[in-house]
Amino acid sequence: MAQATLSGAHAFGELDTYRAELTAYCYRMLGSPFDAEDAVQDAFVRAWRSRDRFEGRAAMRSWLYRIATNVCLDMLKGKERRARPMDLGPSCEPIESNLHIPEIPWLEPIPLHLVAPERDPADVAVANESIRLAFVAALQHLPARQRAVLILRDVLDWQASEVAELLSTSVASVNSALQRARATLAKSNASTSNGAQSLSESDRAMLERYVAAFERYDVKALTSLIQEDARQSMPPYDMWLSGRDDILAWWFGPGIGCQGSRVIPTFSANGMPTYGQYKPSPNGGYDPWALQVLDISDGRIGEFTFFLDTAKLFPLFGLPLHLDA
Known about the structure:
With 325 residues, the protein is α+β, with helices and mostly antiparallel strands. It has 13 helices and six strands. α10 packs antiparallel against α11. The relative contact order is 0.12.
C-alpha cells in the first residue's frame, strides 16, 4: 500500500487527490455512484473537522480509508442490499405480464472516469475488472465488514495487519473474514482476477456493427452479434431473460417500441461498453429510454443491462435528455 506521509494542515489541501480511489472503494461497498460520492464527501468533511487529531506520522491515505470505511458502514446499517434482477430469481418468459417493479434498491452503474482517471493501462485494467457489474453485485451479498475486508485485501492489496488496524480488530479476525468472504464470492463465480481485457479492434468493429444493426432493428444482423446464451435485464424491472432467442423474442415482441431508436456511445460504465438509447418521441426527436451496458465475450455480446432510470443516469454519463430529429 502506498504510504502518503503528508503531515500538518497543508495536507488537507490535497484531499481531492484521493477522490477517485475513495469513490471506487465506496462504490464497491455501496453499489451506487450517488451514494459513493456522498460517502466520499462525508469522509472529507469528517477528516477536515478532525484534522487536529491527525498525526503527521500517520499515512494520510490510510487515515482517509479508515474514515471512508466508517462512513460506508454507517450508511449500510439497516439497509437492504443493492441487487440485480438475476439475484432475485430465475429467468422469465419474454412476455409483458412478467414485468414487475419490486421495492428494492438496485445496483447502479458508475462512469469509469470517476473511479479510474489514471491512464496507466495496468491500473485501468485492474479498475475495470474490480468494478464490473457482476463483481460489484457479488460484493453486495457479503456482510458489510466482510465486504470491506475483501476489497481492501484482494482488490487494493492491503496487508492483513493494515486492515486489522483500520478496522480496530485482530489479524486473525481479518483472515477469518476474508476466508468467509472469498467462499461466498466463489459461489457466485465472481473474482477479482478474471483478467478483464481492453477492447480489441475486432471488438470495437463488432460494437459498431451492433449499433448500426440495433438502429436498423435488423434481426439477422443482431442474431449474429449476440451470444446464444446471452442474458438481458432491465432494472427497475425484476424480469430478466436468458438466451438469445428470448432476448430477440422480447425485442421484436413487447419491446418493439424500441424500433427506430438512436444509440449513442458514452462514457464507459464499470469498464464496459456503454450507450445511451433514445426512442422516437411522439413530440418529435428522441427521448431517453435506457443506458445500455454491454458485456462482451468471445467477440460477441454476452449480456445486456438496460438501466431505465434515465433521469438520474443520463446526466451522470453526460447524455442529453432529448435528441433532436
